[in-house]
UniProtKB/TrEMBL annotation:
<keyword id="KW-0547">Nucleotide-binding</keyword>
<feature type="domain" description="AAA+ ATPase">
    <location>
        <begin position="226"/>
        <end position="365"/>
    </location>
</feature>
<dbReference type="Pfam" id="PF00004">
    <property type="entry name" value="AAA"/>
</dbReference>
<dbReference type="InterPro" id="IPR003959">
    <property type="entry name" value="ATPase_AAA_core"/>
</dbReference>
<dbReference type="GO" id="GO:0005524">
    <property type="term" value="F:ATP binding"/>
</dbReference>
<dbReference type="InterPro" id="IPR003960">
    <property type="entry name" value="ATPase_AAA_CS"/>
</dbReference>
<keyword id="KW-0067">ATP-binding</keyword>
<protein>
    <submittedName>
        <fullName>Spermatogenesis-associated 5 1</fullName>
    </submittedName>
</protein>
<dbReference type="InterPro" id="IPR027417">
    <property type="entry name" value="P-loop_NTPase"/>
</dbReference>
<dbReference type="InterPro" id="IPR003593">
    <property type="entry name" value="AAA+_ATPase"/>
</dbReference>
<dbReference type="InterPro" id="IPR050168">
    <property type="entry name" value="AAA_ATPase_domain"/>
</dbReference>
<dbReference type="GO" id="GO:0016887">
    <property type="term" value="F:ATP hydrolysis activity"/>
</dbReference>
<comment type="similarity">
    <text>Belongs to the AAA ATPase family.</text>
</comment>
Length: 375
């Protein structure tokens, strides 16, 4: 069985959806110029159009990953080989309609782009492209283009193992519009972050965060308390931050991370202002989907009051507690904080209604103990 060595794509092919093949592969596939070809790689598949190599050399493959599955990364491993049975010539048809999810580059561009223009933009950017359900189509950097990519949700007519061609007559329906910071669980970041030895911790934290976000009304009907926030306790370097990132990505939530010491400012009131800005950003993100607000080294923001006469520090603690009370009851937002100095925290932070769940992670067994904190 012939093996093809995967080489970096030709620079001029970026965004063209072309795959460069040798004459022998063209003949074996029965392909003609521009025929749609599905290429299966270790982490996913892509949909390309067949084009000849400039040097007409056999044994090599160059691919533009314009249309690919979510798990497929743009940067493929070096010296990767592809067998002929991983290449498949697909029948094609002209599409009557395609339904998509639009992913903007950032929230500012999403807000400033009129909804009436988005559908026309998508139709123009997809024109002459072959697409398939559950594939993502990325776009080259074009001045004035606010879109990063679109995800193909469905198409008509939809036939199994068939490529659909978007034409001028194809109708486009935009079902959903999100931004890259919400869509970070897909594309290049879709792979799950491995957290070695912390499966139990990951499962427990996921249950605390995911279930209330997905089924808040069910919790209310059953009379169950919905976690307002979770406190991770463990020594430095145990993997608390990595654990939160893994869980947030696994449940498809936007993750907003801040380090406690960074909040402090030099001007009077600047620290409180920075803290309010972070919580306001979390509220904005929650309009697009579930959000996990992660505060690392929270002991620097909420030390025990009364142990010092530092008025600015006490004001910051009061501000944090007030913000927790204000955001905790909102659907779609869960607060997760981490510390390696639980004894230094102000007791008011850990009362029910604020950070009312605790996850304790230690070096030896990496055990997780989830308890209610009733102080």
């Amino acid at each position: 069985m012939a093996l093809l060595k995967l080489l970096p794509q030709v620079p001029e092919d970026e965004g063209t959806q072309r795959c460069r093949l040798g004459p022998a592969v063209f003949s074996a596939l029965g392909a003609t110029l521009g025929s749609p070809v599905k290429i299966t790689l270790p982490t996913g598949s892509c949909l390309c159009t067949a084009w000849p190599r400039h040097d007409l050399a056999d044994g090599y493959l160059q691919v533009d990953l314009k249309c690919r599955t979510l798990g497929l990364k743009k940067c493929q491993p070096q010296n990767l080989t592809v067998s002929m049975d991983q290449l498949k010539l697909l029948p094609s048809c002209k599409l009557r309609r395609v339904t998509v999810k639009v992913i903007f580059k950032n929230r500012a561009l999403k807000k400033s782009t009129p909804k009436t223009m988005v559908q026309d933009m998508v139709k123009e950017l997809l024109r002459k492209a072959y697409v398939s359900p559950h594939h993502v189509v990325t776009f080259a950097s074009i001045p004035g283009n606010p879109l990063a990519c679109v995800e193909i949700l469905s198409m008509e007519p939809a036939t199994a193992e068939e490529a659909g061609l978007v034409t001028l007559k194809t109708g486009v329906t935009v079902k959903e519009a999100v931004t890259l910071d919400w869509h970070n669980h897909s594309m290049e970041d879709s792979a799950r972050i491995p957290v070695a030895g912390m499966n139990d911790a990951s499962t427990s934290l996921k249950e605390m965060i995911d279930l209330p976000l997905r089924f808040p009304k069910t919790f209310q009907k059953l009379g169950l308390s919905v976690p307002r926030g979770v406190l991770l306790v463990g020594p430095p370097g145990v993997g608390k931050t990595l654990l939160v990132k893994s869980v947030a990505r696994g449940i498809g939530a936007s993750l907003l991370c801040i380090d406690g010491p960074i909040i402090y400012g030099s001007r009077p009131g600047e620290s409180e202002e920075n803290l309010r800005r972070v919580f306001e950003q979390a509220r904005e993100l929650s309009s697009e989907g579930p959000v996990v607000l992660f505060i690392d080294e929270i002991d620097s923001l909420c030390p025990k009051r009364g142990s010092s006469s530092n008025a600015p520090e006490n004001r910051l603690v009061a501000q944090l507690l007030t913000l927790l009370d204000g955001i905790g009851g909102e659907n779609g937002i869960v607060i997760v904080a981490a510390t390696n100095r639980p004894d230094a925290l102000d007791p008011a932070l850990r009362r029910p209604g604020r950070l009312d769940r605790e996850v304790i992670v230690n070096y030896i067994l990496l055990l997780v103990i989830a308890v209610y904190c009733f102080i």
